[in-house]
């Protein structure tokens, strides 16, 4: 604008107007040309659009054909891929079928792989129902059914082949050395008492501090267990749980029961037990204790491991199968124990009852572990019930024994006054009780939470008192009061000596021992008084003088003692001493120390009196006729003859 103004100023107004007019004209001309060009372009574009529409109309059939061809190609590709998949399934089926027809025995892994392949074919057709593969699917399913039957047959054949009974010798080799039966024992099953194989007494246990090591027996070879596990899993997956359960139960239960029969386990009822002689029954009880230990620690625990391995991952069958396999064997073993616990009680059964109770206590924790779970509840409860019943019967037998000791009515007296068989029986019985101290204390705790030592002491004291009461009664059978005292002395001394040498001393205490030692001495003193008082009177002569006749007359003292009186005294002494010698040499004091002590006590009274009598009155006889007819024995002779007292000699021996 500034430039235009400057130009107008320079050129002048007329000239400037002309210039502007020219420029406007040029601009108008340019616009007209642009419009013309635009109109021409519009015309050209309109013509092109028309032509393109015609061309598009002409090309549409071609486009449609091209799309159809492309679609056809896509469908052909899909069909080829589907055909390839189906052919692949056919190839899989063909290869798997060849393996299935060969069976699982030679190559189980390949066979199981073929079954998995067939299952994948079934899944393929189930997932792709649009494919027309009904015939193929039916064929594959039939193949799978046959394969499952062969798996079942293979499982049964393999399990049966390797489910053999375990021989007794193999089981014995699995036991700790201390529990293995001796080679010479009947049936290789321990001695008659069962102690060889089953003793659990603390005194025997303490001999070895080494822990008892059990070696698990091989019930089924280790290499076979994984095969059985794979077969069991296939059967379970195929829905054949019932067949699997039945085959396993029947096969393994049969092998287990046969193992026990070979070992010597019998199915015995209460009636069978009642009819048996005690010696036979005692042997069977000893063996039963052995069998229980072998069954629980070796066979049942082994069955548990086998079952757990084969049914690993098949929880629904593992526990019921184990329970069914072992149920009958457990029942047979425990029923024998139950028959013993319910049989007629007798004192001699106490120790086998304690042995049985002890083994049940020993095995309790293992039984609880092995027979865990709901399917084994009955076996656990039966085992616990038997343990308690054995404890109850043992406790009642205690009471029976105490009563039987006190009321023992054995009429046969020991003629020589020695220790009565009842005494030795009861003392041995008590000694055995102390071999079972730990067991007895456990038994007491079943019924009473009190001091077990005090309970054991009380039981022992009552038994000892019952024995003494009975001995007092038996002593009255003797007509000779001296023999009565000797009998009581011998028996009480035997009791005291046995207690002092046993563990009973610690429970009964020193006071008990001292009291009964004094009782022994009292009976010894009574024996001396009753037996020797009369003969000692022969060695005294009452004075006939004015002194009142209370003093023993001295020889030659003028007391008026006649030779005839002295002769009579010698004669009476000889007769009485010879009778005592003959009779009491047949009597017995079995303890050598007590025997010597009693002889010495008699000699200390008799010999001084005899020497004194000879010294005082001997000269009166020696100066007369046939002095040896009256003074038959010197003090030394008497001492020698006293040494023959209480030797238990026969009349024949005495006459020699």
The helix-and-strand class reads: mainly alpha
Q: What is the H-and-E element order?
A: HHHHHHHHHHHHHHHHHHHHHHH
Task: Describe the largest sheet.
Answer: none
Q: Which blocks of ≥5 consecutive residues have pLDDT under 50?
A: 186-209, 543-558
Q: Count all strands and give the number.
A: 0
Percent of sequence in beta strands? under 5%
Q: State mean pLDDT (0 to 100 scale).
A: 83
- Rg over C-alpha atoms, rounded to the nearest angstrom: 58 Å
Gross geometry: rod-shaped
**Residues in helix, %:** over 70%
Give the count of helical stretches.
23
State the distance separating the first and last CA atoms: 187 Å
Task: Provide structural commentary.
The chain is an all-alpha fold and 656 residues long. Helices cover 74% and strands 0% of the residues. It has helices at 2-11, 13-102, 108-127, 134-162, 168-173, 195-198, 202-205, 225-237, 241-263, 270-275, 278-310, 315-342, 350-370, 377-407, 421-435, 437-445, 452-475, 481-500, 504-537, 563-584, 592-622, 635-642, 651-655. Helix 2 packs across helix 4 and helix 4 (134-162) packs parallel to helix 9 (241-263). It starts with a helix and ends with a helix.
Lay out the secondary structure.
Elements: H1 2-11, H2 13-102, H3 108-127, H4 134-162, H5 168-173, H6 195-198, H7 202-205, H8 225-237, H9 241-263, H10 270-275, H11 278-310, H12 315-342, H13 350-370, H14 377-407, H15 421-435, H16 437-445, H17 452-475, H18 481-500, H19 504-537, H20 563-584, H21 592-622, H22 635-642, H23 651-655
Helix pairs in contact: 1-2, 2-3, 2-4, 3-4, 4-8, 4-9, 9-11, 9-12, 11-12, 11-13, 12-14, 13-14, 14-17, 15-17, 15-18, 16-17, 17-18, 18-19, 19-21, 21-22
């Amino acid at each position: 604008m500034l430039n235009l103004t400057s130009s107008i100023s320079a050129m002048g107004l007329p000239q400037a107007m002309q210039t502007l007019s020219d420029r406007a004209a040029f601009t108008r001309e340019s616009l007209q040309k642009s419009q013309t060009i635009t109109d021409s372009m519009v015309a050209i574009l309109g013509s092109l659009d028309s032509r393109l529409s015609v061309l598009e109309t002409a090309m549409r059939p071609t486009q449609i054909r091209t799309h159809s061809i492309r679609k056809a190609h896509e469908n052909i590709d899909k069909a080829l891929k589907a055909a390839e998949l189906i052919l692949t399934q056919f190839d899989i089926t063909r290869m798997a079928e060849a393996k299935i027809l060969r069976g699982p025995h030679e190559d189980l892994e390949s066979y199981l792989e073929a079954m998995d392949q067939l299952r994948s074919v079934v899944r393929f057709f189930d997932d792709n129902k649009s494919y027309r593969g009904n015939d193929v699917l039916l064929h594959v399913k039939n193949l799978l059914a046959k394969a499952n039957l062969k798996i079942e047959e293979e499982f049964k054949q393999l399990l049966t082949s390797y489910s053999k009974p375990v021989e007794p010798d193999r089981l014995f080799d699995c036991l700790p050395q201390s529990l293995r039966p001796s080679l010479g024992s009947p049936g290789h099953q321990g001695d008659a008492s069962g102690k060889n194989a089953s003793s659990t007494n603390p005194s025997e246990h303490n001999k070895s501090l080494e822990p008892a090591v059990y070696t698990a027996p091989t019930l089924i070879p280790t290499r076979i267990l994984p095969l059985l596990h794979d077969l069991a899993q296939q059967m379970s997956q195929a829905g054949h749980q019932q067949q699997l359960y039945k085959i396993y139960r029947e096969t393994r239960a049969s092998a287990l029961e046969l193992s026990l029969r070979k070992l010597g386990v019998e199915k015995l009822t209460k009636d069978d037990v009642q009819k048996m002689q005690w010696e036979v029954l005692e042997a069977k009880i000893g063996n039963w204790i052995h069998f229980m230990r072998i069954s629980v620690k070796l066979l049942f625990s082994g069955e548990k491991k086998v079952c757990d391995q084969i049914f690993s991952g098949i929880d629904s069958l593992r526990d019921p199968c184990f329970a069914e396999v072992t149920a009958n064997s457990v029942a047979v073993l425990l029923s024998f124990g139950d028959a013993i616990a319910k049989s007629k009680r007798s004192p001699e059964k106490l120790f086998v009852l304690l042995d049985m109770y002890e083994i049940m206590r020993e095995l309790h924790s293992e039984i609880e572990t092995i027979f865990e779970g709901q399917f084994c509840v009955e076996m656990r409860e039966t085992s616990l019930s038997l343990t308690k019943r054995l404890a109850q019967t043992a406790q009642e037998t205690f009471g029976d024994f105490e009563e039987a000791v006190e009321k023992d009515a054995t009429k046969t007296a020991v003629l020589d006054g020695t220790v009565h068989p009842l005494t030795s029986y009861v003392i041995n019985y008590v000694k055995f009780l102390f071999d079972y101290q730990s067991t007895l204390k456990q038994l007491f705790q079943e019924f009473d939470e009190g001091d077990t030592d005090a309970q054991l002491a009380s039981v022992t004291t009552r038994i000892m008192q019952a024995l003494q009461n009975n001995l007092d009664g038996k002593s009255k059978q003797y007509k000779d009061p001296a023999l009565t005292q000797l009998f009581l002395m011998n028996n009480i001394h035997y009791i005291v000596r046995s207690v002092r040498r046993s563990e009973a001393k610690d429970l009964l205490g020193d006071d008990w021992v001292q009291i009964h030692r004094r009782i022994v001495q009292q009976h010894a003193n009574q024996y001396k008084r009753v037996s020797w008082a009369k003969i000692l009177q022969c060695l005294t002569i009452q004075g006939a003088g004015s002194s009142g006749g209370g003093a023993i007359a001295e020889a030659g003292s003028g007391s008026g003692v006649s030779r005839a009186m002295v002769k009579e005294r010698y004669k009476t002494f000889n007769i009485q001493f010879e009778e005592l010698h003959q009779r009491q040499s047949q009597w017995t004091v079995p303890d050598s120390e007590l025997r010597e002590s009693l002889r010495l006590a008699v000699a200390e009274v008799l010999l001084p009196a005899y020497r004194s009598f000879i010294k005082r009155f001997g000269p009166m006889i020696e100066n007369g006729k046939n002095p040896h007819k009256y003074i038959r024995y010197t003090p030394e002779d008497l001492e020698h003859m006293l040494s023959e007292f209480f030797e238990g000699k026969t009349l024949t021996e005495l006459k020699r």
